[in-house]
Design goal:
The complex is a heterodimer of chains A (323) and B (570). Chain A is of the alpha/beta class and 323 residues long. Chain A is 45% helix and 11% strand. Chain B has 570 residues and is of the alpha/beta class. The chains are: A alpha/beta (323), B alpha/beta (570).
Chain lengths: 323, 570
């Protein structure tokens, strides 16, 4: 845990929606803010923070660094941070998704910096971004005990419920695969397959994600916590989620959006496209059968129609593993 | 080790362990009995367990007489008397007496562990390197050894040392080095001693299994060349603490160390992936203490060393143990090929006669946190930028150990070592041939589970066509050469440029000369697997490189290389 006799110093990287949601968590700290472009007017949550023109300036003296960035921007910023990173700094991040070849966010940070005390902030990111108030419950995934301890200390006055998990890989995989399941649900809705199919797809998506996480060194039971089950319960506005919207469009036979032509260049809010493109190879490498995930990948690649793909999945029912 | 250092280390070790144990017991809820007696009771229990497993007491020193040898029987009686006394006092001893008993136990463990280094013995060994090491290796008739050496063979030609030698030498000047080698055979320590002499490295101290000291000749040299004793049968947490503390203290005093992160020899033949990093964790503790006392040379470096054998001396026993029907392998094997001088001599003779090589590949140094270091001993981040590794253990204005944090650092170090072992392994003809034959066997019997395939065979596959084997070897070579090009592994010169027929022939030749039953033999244009266990053993050395992707078969072992894939616990 970072010990302080004065206020802790935190570098917040990213001034978009995620940065605004996370900033209140660090109200007890001295926060330096960096963003790719400084907006003409900073939103209220960020207005009082010290603005820094470059990453190194924000991070050099920090006790903790918070990456409030999507996966697409993570590596470049991590590389800049790496030039000033120190071994005693704690790093928090919310990036969801994967890079090509299924490189997880913590792997990106390990490849670009010397820091070890990495902590992913998990739980349902939909509620994290969409809710008007700061998060009241957070899952902190880290192999090291320090980050969760620090976050508890800093958010004590806010009454945030911090749940610590050592299963960083499981939480990242849960976050990465959640939008892929959302795509399948959108397609099923468009095909009017009904609520029970929706439930089956959600459950299947969770089970397949747990299998993949275990193959990558995570723990399957992480999916019983906020990282998995927490996402299982659909919020009232679930149909507005970007991936569900895309799935609806695909299931309705609408023209393929431009985002599907180059999944690796998909906009940040459609990180599920990148994940889906990387899934077949990682499943093969670990000798896994992930019918739902592979079905979504096939639809996005244009090799199967949504109806055919989902029919294959539904024939498997809830059976997970070898037939 | 210098005598004054030995005494200082033992004194500091004793003080540290006593302080920690007493402090720990103070945290417990008060009972009628002083909690120290639980620590003592545990020690008594573990000593009884150890004795049931190991009737031979081996070398055993009494406090204050480091250089005395006890005869086996006298040592056993002294040992029994001591522990009998401790056991008899449990339940009766007051607080002060319990502390005194604890002190005696810690003393006893410490003296059991510590070794000695005699520069005169070391100089003698250095002058007589080939025959001295040969005698150590074989403990066999010197007459026969001299006779063989007259034929011109030498250990120097058989052991090929490679890697960044200047870099490794520089690290020894900058800080304290821990050599962390793979462990395939009991010959490893001696091969490493030879290799380090070849590299011009200073001597190192290392933990040797206690049963190795039962051989008086080997024991004498081991003791005086810096070996300290590790009693693998002693599971007492207090003993383990003394061991770790001893290793840490030697590091703090600047003594270069060697330890095998895999713990014991690889039973499956595969490279280590599951490491025991307790002693490596001592490096972090030693580093913190060096920083706290502002030592002039505080840095510690861990150098991975990968040993690659064409043939493994104890392969038959090791793989039999791995495949043992009860599913549990013996952690300690003493009745193997290494314990039979004739087998050792035969192994070495074949090695020399075949112009075969043991490759000893030194890797680039790592800091205690798994970061690579440059020639000046400065830690580097993944982008090659220099970093201050002391920040990993910084707390406030100083430095401190934190057990859970440091355990994760050790895991990262372990991951870096595993990556180095994979990268620096040298593929040789026996592994290539074994892989090809075993893959063909599996492809011919896809429904047969691995254990059955190894123990009983696949049924219809009694032999394989030579052309078929050549094709498989050819395919494997393509993949292996591509991997070598990408720096994922190394190839012996023969595998690098040799043609398929030559490599198969060389593999068959090696298999035919040493093991009691060859792994595979040739009859005309057919190859007949004769010892599937050995085939499995040698092919496992190529697990973990993704070669199964080309055959469509799943891996034979679990990801940590500890169990058969799909087996219980895997």
């Amino acid at each position: 845990m970072v010990e302080h006799t004065t206020k802790p110093r935190v570098a917040l990287l990213g001034c978009g929606a995620m940065g605004q949601r996370l900033a209140p968590l660090f109200a007890a700290a001295e926060v330096s803010l960096w963003g790719r472009r400084r907006p003409p007017t900073l939103p209220p949550a960020l207005a009082q923070l010290r603005w820094c023109e470059d990453v190194a300036d924000a991070c050099a003296a920090a006790d903790a660094v918070v990456f409030a960035l999507p996966i697409a921007a993570l590596r470049q910023v991590a590389r800049a941070y790496g030039a000033v990173a120190r071994g005693d700094q704690q790093v928090f991040y919310v990036a969801r998704g994967v890079e090509p070849d299924f490189i997880l966010p913590h792997q990106v940070l390990r490849q670009e910096t010397c820091t070890r005390q990495l902590a992913v902030l998990g739980g349902s990111l939909r509620s994290l971004i969409a809710a008007p108030e700061p998060p009241s419950a957070l899952l902190v995934g880290s192999r090291y005990p320090g980050p969760a301890q620090s976050l508890r200390a800093w958010t004590q006055a806010l009454g945030v419920q911090i749940t610590a998990s050592a299963d960083l890989v499981g939480i990242e995989v849960a976050g990465a695969l959640e939008p892929v399941t959302a795509l399948a649900i959108g397609m099923a809705e468009a095909l009017q397959l009904g609520a029970s199919v929706r439930g089956l797809l959600q459950t299947r998506g969770l089970a397949e994600a747990a299998r993949l996480a275990e193959a990558l060194g995570g723990a399957g039971n992480t999916f019983a916590l906020l990282a998995g089950m927490g996402s299982l319960v659909l919020p009232p506005d679930w149909q507005q989620e970007a991936h569900v919207q895309l799935g609806l469009a695909l299931g309705a036979g609408q023209p393929q959006p431009a985002a599907l032509d180059a999944p690796t260049d998909a906009p940040a809010h459609l990180d599920g496209l990148r994940t889906a493109a990387a899934l077949p190879a990682v499943a093969r490498a670990h000798h896994l059968q992930l019918p739902l995930m592979e079905a979504v990948a096939a639809v996005l690649a244009g090799t199967q129609t949504p109806a055919t793909a989902l029919r294959t999945v539904l024939q498997r029912g809830l059976q997970v593993g070898e037939p | 080790m210098r005598q004054e250092d030995q005494e200082r280390i033992l004194t500091a070790l004793h003080r540290q362990v006593m302080t920690e144990v007493v402090a720990q017991t103070q945290g417990r809820a008060p009972t009628d009995r002083w909690p120290l007696d639980e620590v003592l009771a545990q020690s008594v229990y573990h000593e009884r367990q150890r004795r049931t497993q190991a009737p031979s007491p081996g070398r055993f020193f009494t406090p204050g007489s480091l250089h005395l040898w006890h005869g086996a029987e006298r040592a056993r009686r002294a040992n029994e008397a001591f522990w009998g006394h401790v056991a008899s006092r449990l339940g009766h001893a007051g607080q002060l007496e319990q502390v005194s008993l604890l002190s005696q136990v810690v003393h006893r463990y410490a003296f059991d562990v510590c070794g000695n280094f005699d520069a005169r013995v070391y100089a003698l060994a250095r002058q007589l390197v080939p025959p001295a090491l040969g005698a150590l290796l074989g403990a066999s008739s010197p007459q026969r050894l001299w006779q063989h050496l007259g034929e011109g063979a030498s250990l120097q030609e058989a052991v090929a040392v490679q890697g960044p030698s200047e870099h490794v030498r520089r690290l020894h000047e900058v800080g304290t080095v821990i050599l962390a080698p793979t462990h395939a055979s009991n010959l490893d320590a001696v091969v490493l001693a030879f290799a380090s002499l070849q590299m011009g490295l200073p001597p190192f101290i290392y933990g040797a299994a206690r049963d190795l000291f039962d051989n008086r000749l080997i024991g004498y040299f081991l003791h005086n060349l810096g070996a300290y004793t590790i009693d693998r049968r002693n599971d007492d947490p207090l003993y383990r603490r003394v061991l770790r503390e001893y290793a840490a203290r030697t590091l703090e005093c600047g003594y270069h160390n060697l330890f095998f992160p895999g713990g014991s020899r690889s039973r499956s033949g595969a490279a280590e992936r599951h490491l025991k990093l307790g002693l490596a964790g001592s490096a972090i503790g030693a580093y913190v203490h060096n920083l706290q006392r502002q030592a002039p040379r505080p840095k510690l470096f861990i150098v991975p060393v990968t040993l690659s054998y064409q043939l493994v001396l104890e392969a038959e026993t090791l793989v039999a143990d791995f495949l043992a029907e009860e599913g549990k392998s013996r952690y300690i094997i003493t009745d193997d090929e290494f314990s039979r001088p004739r087998r050792v001599f035969s192994f070495l003779s074949q090695l020399f006669a075949l112009d075969s090589h043991i490759y000893v590949t030194f890797g680039r140094g790592l800091d205690p946190f798994g970061n690579p270091v440059d020639d000046a001993g400065e830690s580097l981040d993944p982008r090659g930028r220099r970093i201050d590794c002391s920040r990993y253990v910084a707390r406030g204005d100083g430095y401190a150990c934190e057990p859970r944090r440091d355990a994760e650092y050790s895991r990262d170090l372990g991951a870096a070592l595993v990556a180095a072992y994979a990268r620096d392994h040298v593929v040789q003809a026996t592994q290539l041939l074994a892989r090809a034959v075993f893959t063909l066997m599996r492809l011919a019997s896809p429904q047969v589970d691995l254990m059955r395939l190894i123990r009983v065979g696949g049924g219809p596959v009694e032999s394989l066509g030579l052309r078929e084997v050549y094709a498989q070897v050819r395919q494997l070579l393509l993949v292996l050469r591509a991997l070598a090009q990408n720096g994922r592994l190394r190839l012996s010169p023969q595998v690098q440029v040799g043609n398929v027929e030559e490599l198969v022939s060389d593999g068959l030749h090696h298999f035919g000369l040493y093991h009691r039953r060859p792994a595979v033999v040739r009859r005309g244009d057919r190859l007949i697997p004769q010892d599937r266990g050995l085939l499995f053993f040698y092919q496992n050395r190529l697990e973990g490189y993704g070669l199964e992707a080309h055959s469509g078969l799943p891996p034979t072992l679990t990801a940590d290389h500890r169990f058969l894939a799909g087996a219980q616990g895997g």
